[in-house]
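SAMPLE LOG
Freezer: B-3
Tube label: C17
Construct: single chain, 139 aa
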Amino acid sequence: MIKLSENVYSLDEAIVVLEPVRTIEFFQKPPSPKTFATGEVIFQAGECSDVIYGIISGEVEILINGKVVEIIQKGDVFGEGALLHSDHQRGSTAIAKTDSLLAFLDREHFMFAVQQTPMFALEVMKSYSDRLRRLRHRL
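STRUCTURE (predicted):
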């Protein structure tokens, strides 16, 4: 067993304790994380894609019908809908509110991460659920 840090002794344990964004960063294929400048569009509603993002740093606005519905930040994951729905269409637009560094996974690497680290799937669902709860409280 390899000691990776003070309380983590194996790669499997390391992945289990990582935030979803760190797991995305760990499993992403090159190139390295993507940088988006303030105001830059990350994706638009209706676009087809197979990429999920995790915010390493910065803030991202999520818009529906041109209206900001939430602002997400470091540690949040987004864009998972395009990976999960059969049409692979984005249901919202994402714009960098501040300069942002984003990790990303394509569908193939996302599915691998889910299969190899089931806790990752639960953490992605929790992140999505937390975002939905915050949105409900604002309504």
